[in-house]
Structure to design on (222 residues):
């Protein structure tokens, strides 16, 4: 099993239930969903001309690039051993476009807690112990549908909110199909705008949900 990796780095989880937790991030290349507001658009395409050596990926800085290469689960585990952390976030791109079970099983055996961040538009193939964050993407340009199986597998829902319609969709289209408790439903203000943040706060107060701002950006880290 090999995975197309754009970067691996050590930072902190800035969103959701593990906000503030030191974490290593494994960012995979490739995503067909096409969210207009995506802040990692450099991971959308997987062009062979952008494939580089493993050493190049490991030397990446905070400047985003489309460069990527193949990593085996063992390659990833060896890289993570350079840092003192116990939490690994597998993100993208869209990581669930790949079978993550070999990777998550290996990470858990090595003593890590694996968290997956996904749009919910692919089947989630992972270890039973993996913590799954589903950020449902509805009616995106890529045309992919949010899967019932992904919502059922979710440990938390992290939903981008920019207007009232987003909250209505969360209530009517997403939450009836998941068993995630209300305190694990996180509203993410789009672009952290004042209007979106106010809407998230008011909705969280009314429904018992939580607000998740991108604290890593506030702190100035990846």
């Amino acid at each position: 099993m090999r995975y197309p990796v754009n970067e691996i780095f050590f930072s902190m989880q800035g969103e959701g239930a593990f906000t503030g937790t030191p974490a290593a991030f494994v960012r995979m290349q490739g995503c067909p969903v096409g969210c207009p507001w995506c802040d990692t658009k450099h991971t959308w395409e997987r062009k062979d001309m952008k494939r580089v050596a493993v050493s190049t990926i490991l030397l990446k800085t905070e400047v985003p690039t489309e460069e990527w290469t193949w990593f085996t689960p063992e390659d990833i585990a060896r890289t993570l051993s350079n840092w003192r952390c116990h939490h690994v976030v597998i993100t993208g791109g869209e990581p669930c476009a790949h079978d993550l079970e070999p990777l998550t099983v290996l990470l858990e055996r090595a003593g890590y807690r694996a968290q997956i961040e996904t749009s919910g538009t692919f089947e989630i193939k992972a270890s039973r112990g993996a913590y799954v964050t589903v950020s449902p993407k509805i009616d995106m340009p890529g045309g992919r549908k949010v899967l019932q199986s992904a919502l059922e597998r979710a440990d938390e829902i992290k939903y981008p909110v920019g207007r009232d319609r987003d909250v209505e969709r969360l209530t009517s289209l997403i939450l009836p199909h998941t068993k995630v408790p209300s305190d694990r439903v996180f509203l993410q203000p789009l672009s952290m705008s004042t209007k979106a943040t106010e809407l998230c706060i008011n909705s969280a107060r009314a429904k018992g949900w939580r607000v998740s701002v991108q604290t890593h950006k506030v702190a100035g880290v990846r």
